[in-house]
Amino acid sequence: MNAIDGPALEAPTGNDTSKTAIAKSKATTGLERALMRAASELSTMTFRRMGSDDRREVFALFSQLVLRDDYRLDSQQAYSGKKPDRAQIEAALGEALTLFVDRPDYGFVFLALENERVVACASVSYAISLSLGKVVAQMQHLIVAEGQRRRGVGAALVEALTAQLRRIEIARLDVEVHVANDAAKKFYEDLGFAPSREERLALVL
Q: Global pTM?
Protein backbone atom coordinates (compact mmCIF):
# COMPACT_ATOMS: atom_id res chain seq x y z
CA MET A 1 0.00 0.00 0.00
CA ASN A 2 1.28 3.45 -0.93
CA ALA A 3 0.67 5.99 1.85
CA ILE A 4 -0.19 8.67 -0.68
CA ASP A 5 -1.84 6.80 -3.50
CA GLY A 6 -3.73 4.32 -1.34
CA PRO A 7 -4.16 0.63 -2.09
CA ALA A 8 -3.38 -0.61 -5.56
CA LEU A 9 -6.47 -1.53 -7.58
CA GLU A 10 -6.64 -4.73 -9.54
CA ALA A 11 -7.59 -4.50 -13.18
CA PRO A 12 -11.21 -5.53 -13.66
CA THR A 13 -11.79 -8.99 -14.96
CA GLY A 14 -14.11 -9.76 -17.83
CA ASN A 15 -16.87 -10.63 -15.35
CA ASP A 16 -16.34 -7.38 -13.41
CA THR A 17 -16.51 -5.34 -16.61
CA SER A 18 -19.69 -7.11 -17.60
CA LYS A 19 -21.26 -6.50 -14.18
CA THR A 20 -20.34 -2.80 -14.34
CA ALA A 21 -21.83 -2.47 -17.81
CA ILE A 22 -25.03 -4.17 -16.66
CA ALA A 23 -25.28 -1.89 -13.61
CA LYS A 24 -24.81 1.21 -15.78
CA SER A 25 -27.36 -0.10 -18.26
CA LYS A 26 -29.89 -0.67 -15.49
CA ALA A 27 -29.29 2.81 -14.05
CA THR A 28 -29.69 4.39 -17.49
CA THR A 29 -32.81 2.38 -18.18
CA GLY A 30 -34.23 3.37 -14.80
CA LEU A 31 -33.61 7.06 -15.53
CA GLU A 32 -35.14 6.75 -18.99
CA ARG A 33 -38.20 5.07 -17.54
CA ALA A 34 -38.55 7.80 -14.93
CA LEU A 35 -38.32 10.48 -17.61
CA MET A 36 -40.81 8.63 -19.78
CA ARG A 37 -43.23 8.34 -16.85
CA ALA A 38 -42.90 12.08 -16.17
CA ALA A 39 -43.47 12.89 -19.85
CA SER A 40 -46.46 10.56 -19.91
CA GLU A 41 -47.95 12.22 -16.83
CA LEU A 42 -47.49 15.69 -18.25
CA SER A 43 -48.92 14.67 -21.62
CA THR A 44 -52.40 14.77 -20.05
CA MET A 45 -51.90 18.37 -18.98
CA THR A 46 -53.59 21.26 -20.78
CA PHE A 47 -52.84 24.98 -20.70
CA ARG A 48 -55.05 28.02 -21.17
CA ARG A 49 -55.92 31.45 -19.84
CA MET A 50 -58.04 31.86 -16.76
CA GLY A 51 -61.75 32.51 -17.24
CA SER A 52 -64.29 33.77 -14.74
CA ASP A 53 -65.24 30.20 -13.82
CA ASP A 54 -61.65 29.49 -12.73
CA ARG A 55 -61.43 32.30 -10.17
CA ARG A 56 -62.20 30.16 -7.12
CA GLU A 57 -59.48 27.59 -7.88
CA VAL A 58 -56.95 30.23 -8.88
CA PHE A 59 -57.71 32.29 -5.77
CA ALA A 60 -57.07 29.26 -3.56
CA LEU A 61 -53.76 28.52 -5.30
CA PHE A 62 -52.44 32.09 -5.33
CA SER A 63 -53.48 32.43 -1.68
CA GLN A 64 -50.81 29.87 -0.82
CA LEU A 65 -48.25 32.19 -2.38
CA VAL A 66 -49.35 35.57 -1.03
CA LEU A 67 -50.11 34.31 2.49
CA ARG A 68 -47.42 31.68 3.09
CA ASP A 69 -44.41 32.20 0.85
CA ASP A 70 -41.57 33.74 2.89
CA TYR A 71 -40.05 35.53 -0.10
CA ARG A 72 -43.39 37.02 -1.09
CA LEU A 73 -44.13 38.08 2.48
CA ASP A 74 -40.73 39.75 2.69
CA SER A 75 -41.65 41.95 -0.30
CA GLN A 76 -45.31 42.48 0.59
CA GLN A 77 -44.91 45.76 2.48
CA ALA A 78 -42.99 47.40 -0.38
CA TYR A 79 -45.66 46.35 -2.88
CA SER A 80 -48.65 47.45 -0.78
CA GLY A 81 -47.15 50.48 0.96
CA LYS A 82 -47.88 49.09 4.42
CA LYS A 83 -47.90 45.83 6.29
CA PRO A 84 -51.28 44.39 5.32
CA ASP A 85 -53.29 41.87 7.28
CA ARG A 86 -54.77 38.66 5.88
CA ALA A 87 -58.10 40.25 4.97
CA GLN A 88 -56.41 43.04 3.00
CA ILE A 89 -54.15 40.57 1.16
CA GLU A 90 -57.10 38.38 0.19
CA ALA A 91 -59.18 41.38 -0.88
CA ALA A 92 -56.37 42.66 -3.11
CA LEU A 93 -55.92 39.21 -4.64
CA GLY A 94 -59.63 38.99 -5.43
CA GLU A 95 -59.60 42.43 -7.06
CA ALA A 96 -56.52 41.53 -9.11
CA LEU A 97 -58.16 38.36 -10.45
CA THR A 98 -61.26 40.35 -11.39
CA LEU A 99 -59.07 42.80 -13.33
CA PHE A 100 -57.37 39.94 -15.18
CA VAL A 101 -60.78 38.65 -16.29
CA ASP A 102 -62.31 42.04 -17.09
CA ARG A 103 -59.25 43.70 -18.64
CA PRO A 104 -57.37 41.19 -20.82
CA ASP A 105 -55.55 44.12 -22.40
CA TYR A 106 -53.67 44.48 -19.10
CA GLY A 107 -52.65 40.83 -18.91
CA PHE A 108 -53.92 37.41 -17.93
CA VAL A 109 -53.45 34.43 -15.64
CA PHE A 110 -52.09 31.35 -17.40
CA LEU A 111 -53.16 27.95 -16.11
CA ALA A 112 -51.88 24.39 -16.17
CA LEU A 113 -54.72 21.89 -15.73
CA GLU A 114 -54.77 18.16 -15.14
CA ASN A 115 -58.05 16.28 -15.17
CA GLU A 116 -59.79 19.68 -15.36
CA ARG A 117 -58.16 20.80 -12.09
CA VAL A 118 -55.81 23.79 -11.86
CA VAL A 119 -52.39 22.50 -10.77
CA ALA A 120 -50.32 25.61 -11.52
CA CYS A 121 -50.84 29.21 -12.51
CA ALA A 122 -48.87 32.32 -13.39
CA SER A 123 -49.85 35.99 -13.61
CA VAL A 124 -48.72 37.83 -16.73
CA SER A 125 -48.85 41.57 -17.45
CA TYR A 126 -47.95 43.56 -20.56
CA ALA A 127 -45.46 46.41 -20.94
CA ILE A 128 -43.60 48.24 -23.71
CA SER A 129 -39.85 47.73 -23.98
CA LEU A 130 -37.61 50.67 -24.91
CA SER A 131 -34.82 48.15 -25.58
CA LEU A 132 -36.83 46.27 -28.20
CA GLY A 133 -39.44 48.82 -29.24
CA LYS A 134 -42.07 46.12 -28.83
CA VAL A 135 -44.64 44.79 -26.41
CA VAL A 136 -43.18 42.45 -23.79
CA ALA A 137 -44.69 40.44 -20.95
CA GLN A 138 -43.81 40.17 -17.30
CA MET A 139 -44.54 37.05 -15.27
CA GLN A 140 -44.88 38.26 -11.68
CA HIS A 141 -46.05 35.15 -9.86
CA LEU A 142 -45.82 31.44 -10.62
CA ILE A 143 -47.04 28.76 -8.25
CA VAL A 144 -47.46 24.99 -8.53
CA ALA A 145 -49.92 23.24 -6.24
CA GLU A 146 -48.56 21.25 -3.32
CA GLY A 147 -48.32 17.60 -4.28
CA GLN A 148 -47.66 18.53 -7.92
CA ARG A 149 -44.16 19.93 -7.48
CA ARG A 150 -40.92 18.40 -8.79
CA ARG A 151 -42.79 16.81 -11.69
CA GLY A 152 -41.80 19.41 -14.27
CA VAL A 153 -45.19 21.16 -14.08
CA GLY A 154 -43.70 24.64 -13.62
CA ALA A 155 -41.29 24.20 -16.51
CA ALA A 156 -44.08 22.85 -18.72
CA LEU A 157 -46.26 25.86 -17.89
CA VAL A 158 -43.47 28.31 -18.76
CA GLU A 159 -42.83 26.45 -22.03
CA ALA A 160 -46.51 26.57 -22.98
CA LEU A 161 -46.72 30.23 -21.96
CA THR A 162 -43.74 31.27 -24.07
CA ALA A 163 -45.21 29.42 -27.07
CA GLN A 164 -48.49 31.33 -26.69
CA LEU A 165 -46.70 34.67 -26.27
CA ARG A 166 -44.73 34.07 -29.45
CA ARG A 167 -47.98 33.40 -31.34
CA ILE A 168 -49.31 36.83 -30.34
CA GLU A 169 -45.95 38.46 -31.16
CA ILE A 170 -44.84 39.31 -27.63
CA ALA A 171 -41.11 39.98 -27.91
CA ARG A 172 -39.81 38.99 -24.46
CA LEU A 173 -40.88 37.41 -21.19
CA ASP A 174 -39.46 38.87 -17.97
CA VAL A 175 -39.76 37.30 -14.55
CA GLU A 176 -39.46 38.58 -10.97
CA VAL A 177 -37.31 36.68 -8.47
CA HIS A 178 -36.60 37.61 -4.86
CA VAL A 179 -32.93 38.52 -4.42
CA ALA A 180 -32.42 35.67 -1.91
CA ASN A 181 -34.34 32.99 -3.83
CA ASP A 182 -31.44 31.12 -5.40
CA ALA A 183 -33.56 28.07 -6.25
CA ALA A 184 -35.95 30.19 -8.33
CA LYS A 185 -33.05 31.91 -10.08
CA LYS A 186 -31.60 28.55 -11.08
CA PHE A 187 -35.01 27.30 -12.22
CA TYR A 188 -35.44 30.23 -14.61
CA GLU A 189 -31.84 30.27 -15.78
CA ASP A 190 -32.16 26.58 -16.64
CA LEU A 191 -35.13 27.56 -18.82
CA GLY A 192 -33.02 30.11 -20.70
CA PHE A 193 -33.76 33.32 -18.78
CA ALA A 194 -30.79 35.68 -18.46
CA PRO A 195 -30.11 37.79 -15.33
CA SER A 196 -30.84 41.48 -15.96
CA ARG A 197 -28.56 42.65 -13.10
CA GLU A 198 -31.29 45.06 -12.00
CA GLU A 199 -33.27 45.18 -8.76
CA ARG A 200 -36.91 46.18 -8.76
CA LEU A 201 -38.05 49.06 -6.50
CA ALA A 202 -41.69 49.92 -5.70
CA LEU A 203 -43.53 53.16 -4.97
CA VAL A 204 -47.20 52.84 -4.07
CA LEU A 205 -49.21 55.78 -5.49
A: 0.77
